[in-house]
Design a protein that fits this description.
Blueprint: E1 4-10, H1 14-25, E2 30-33, E3 45-46, H2 48-56, E4 73-74, E5 80-81, H3 85-93, E6 101-103, E7 106-111, E8 114-117, H4 122-127, H5 133-148, H6 167-173, H7 178-188, H8 201-218, E9 224-227, H9 233-244, E10 248-250, E11 257-260, E12 266-271, E13 274-283, E14 292-305, E15 318-322, H10 324-327, E16 333-339, E17 350-357, H11 363-366, H12 368-371, E18 379-390, H13 394-397, E19 399-401, H14 412-426
Parallel strand pairs: 1-2, 1-13, 2-10, 7-15, 13-19
Antiparallel strand pairs: 3-4, 5-9, 6-9, 7-8, 11-12, 12-13, 14-17, 14-18, 15-16, 16-17
Helix pairs in contact: 1-9, 1-14, 6-8
């Protein structure tokens, strides 16, 4: 360990593992350490025994739930947009060769007390029970505008500068109702709250186009994909990538202490009496608690079930978004479900999650609207964790700290944080302009 490295990465959460892989591919000398003896950090996947130990103490799980090893329960459940940034990152780094994916069956939105399939194209809008006849026509015209919009072709802009007008102004030009705006903004554009309405419309249009492009890739019921055996596979895949390019891994290293020089710049990491020198440190918030601030909490319920979620067309994997306005909340609630078809549970078993940014100290009652959609559950666990973001100035101390995972059940915000950190560390941007249709990994999905 008494060597000098370009970067020491602390923690094997997904964000840290992606960065470790990207930096190793760049030719940097990387040492990756974790105080835990497993990969994944806060974003790990647990087998049934581990899940029971974490939430129920030392109890052994009941035999009727099946073999412990057949469970891979994500602690930060998220789906991937099929045409999104994480998939592009996977293909760019060739990490797809370590992973297999399967499309997610359904994408739904909660409106007026019911679950509805999310319409994503002009044709789906015409069939959707979310809207009345005249509203369907207006929505169809809006979808056609979005589908045809091309930043480089002013003819498709119809005289509108989407970098200057707000989403609210764009929507008002199409005369859409508040309920339609609700599912477009939250279930298609995947905004977490309503602040987007007063921001430039270009962002919402790009998000809607990403949703439609992702949906079109597999002609399936949703724009999402998900790895077989759960998200715990992702950090390990990026760890393999880092190792292939010379990265060094050390798990189960207690008390990783970041060392600083007289100028306050990082100069190394000490564990078990040995110090590894480095120029930069990348870590999750738990390794540098004095350089982060609390920005909220995530409340989550984890359910083991013996059936798919009712009213989702028997989908074995599904996302349901409950927009804030439908629940009288400040931010959205998310339901995520996957099953034995993604190899995360024994045959006949389903794993469902209900997640939200906590607005009270009572997750049981706060998450009730999402839990009520699940039907009968075999077992139910509740989790709550604090979220942190960095407050340091990396240019002064060379410490690059990730932001805690949010409550969303998709990866777009996670990868944005990673790519911004990569640029801060290296001064470069990752070229993600890969041709997804030609990607060799596509047939694995």
């Amino acid at each position: 360990m008494d060597e000098e490295y370009d970067v020491i990465v602390l923690g094997t959460g997904l964000k840290e593992c992606i960065l470790s892989g990207l930096l190793s591919v760049d030719g940097l000398k990387v040492l990756h350490m974790d105080r835990n003896d497993y990969y994944g950090g806060d974003s790990t996947s647990l087998n049934l025994n581990q899940l029971w130990k974490r939430f129920r103490g030392e109890d052994k799980p009941p035999a009727h739930l099946g073999a412990s090893r057949d469970y891979n329960v994500d602690m930060v459940p998220k789906f991937m947009m099929a045409n999104g940034t994480l998939v592009r990152t996977l293909i760019h780094t060739d990490v797809t060769k370590y992973l297999s994916f399967k499309a997610v069956d359904g994408s739904y939105v909660f409106s007026k007390g019911k679950i509805h399939k999310v319409p994503a194209t002009d044709m789906e809008a015409l069939k959707s029970p979310l809207m009345g006849l005249f509203e369907k026509r207006r929505a169809r015209n809006f979808f056609v505008y979005v589908q045809n919009y091309n930043e480089a072709d002013p003819v498709t802009h119809q005289g509108l500068d989407l970098t200057r007008i707000t989403t609210r102004e764009l929507i008002s030009k199409h005369g859409l109702s508040d309920d339609t705006v609700d599912f477009i903004g939250h279930a298609l554009a995947l905004h977490r709250d309503d602040r987007y309405l007063n921001e430039p419309a270009i962002d919402t249009v790009k998000r809607m186009k990403l949703y439609a492009e992702s949906l079109a890739r597999f002609q399936g019921g949703s724009p999402y994909i998900y790895p077989l055996y759960g998200l715990g596979e992702l950090p390990q895949a990026f760890a393999r990538l880092s190792a292939v390019y010379g990265g060094t891994y050390m798990l189960n290293k207690p008390e990783c202490k970041v060392e600083f020089d007289m100028e306050g710049k990082v100069c190394g990491v000490t564990s078990e009496g040995e110090t590894a020198k480095c120029k930069k440190v990348v870590c999750d918030p738990s390794y540098l608690p004095n350089k982060v601030r609390k920005i909220g909490k995530v409340a989550r319920a984890i359910a083991i079930m013996s059936h798919p979620i009712p009213n989702t067309n028997d989908s074995h994997s599904v996302q349901i978004i409950l927009p804030q306005k439908q629940l009288g909340r400040k931010s959205d609630m998310y339901v995520f479900c996957c099953s034995y078809t993604h190899n995360v549970a024994p045959k006949g078993k389903f794993i469902a999650f209900v997640s939200a940014e906590a607005e009270t100290d009572n997750p049981q009652s706060e998450l009730r609207p999402g839990i009520d959609l699940l039907g009968q559950v075999d077992e139910l666990f509740f989790d709550m964790y604090d979220r942190y973001e960095p407050v340091n100035e990396p240019a002064l101390d060379n410490c690059f700290v990730s932001t805690s995972y949010d409550a969303t059940t998709h990866f777009e915000t996670t990868v944005t944080d990673v790519l911004n950190m990569y640029t801060a560390i290296t001064g470069k941007t990752v070229d993600l302009s890969v041709d997804l249709s030609a990607a060799s990994a596509a047939e694995e999905y």
